[in-house]
Amino acid sequence: MSSLEKNRSKLVALLAKPGSGNNSCADCLDTDPDWASSNLGVFLCTKCAGFHRNLGSHISKVKSLRLDNWESHQVEFMDANGNMVAKEKFEKNVPLFYRHPGPNDPDVLREQWIRAKYDRKEFTGPEPVHYLQGGVKEGYLYKRGKDDHRFQLRRFFLNEHDYTLRYFVKENKEPKDVIPIQDMNACFCPLKMSNPNGMQITYLKDGNSRCLYLYSEDGKDIVDWYNAIRAAKMTLNRVAFPGTKDKVLARRLVRDFIKEGWLWKTGPSGKESYKQRWFSLDDRRLMYFNQPMDAYPIKDIFLGTEEEGYKVREGLPPGFREKEQTYGFTLKIPGREFKLCADAHDERQSWMKVLMQVFQRPLSPQDNSARFR
Ligand SMILES: [Zn+2]
Question: How far is the CA of 113 from the centre of ligand 1 (A)?
């Protein structure tokens, strides 16, 4: 075995070194890293390695574990460092509300995490970075018009002192809306919005779910807004649930949608034609829209538990026919049945599975208050 081959096998063996954390990506925790940064001493998945490469080799020198040549001193450096050692250094001070990216998260979260961690070194100082200056954040974001659907710059103002997010259409005028952050949700929807930095905000307005579609041209800016919203919600949670551990509160900040996609829906009689609707499952709320980026859903359905009569089953009730070449299922809620069809068999199974999981989950006190909102 040549010395290069020996180095490579030593390096690959480091993936399994006990307590090293090297068996999952240092940044998104995806399994089986294939790459490493030879100067930062971390093992990485393919996607995160790509964002490391974008930082430039003066910050991170990316190499393939199996295809590149490794010198003995480089392997020794990787052995002396590794993912857990780097975590202690680069993630010393990550605020609890900060969103760590997972293997399936949008690229903007992954990229900004990597930039914050290794380039801006936001988490290595003695004090955490503040996403709200003096409890407020203000700036401009592109917002999609409710009627004309055009994205235009609007001023946004997040205030941790009264727990609101305001936005303004005209300067020095009253805000267009004052959004209490208590029931407000924020999540990234890059695919639906065809924009890598696209973020959706959902809140309650006059008893309906109102959706805002926002983006910033700058990835750091939109992720800073997202984390500022999380920070403000953390402050609110501390007041609303005194005595609850911060770690627990940090899990209740904002939510990603469980699932979104097109389904066909027919009316109650069995005679109506099928209409295609965009469905979004947000925790215990199922919303359906005429178009994916509508400001308001056509309907917003609270989902309770199996014991209360919420059910989903394959196929349609007697008297109903599936739309040609689709796969039907029935969603039953107390007093109503929804007859739905998915374009693919797997898609139907996937919807049924996530709905069933919601029905099997016990209701929390927050869930119950959401039911009557
Ligand atoms: Zn990764």
Answer: 11
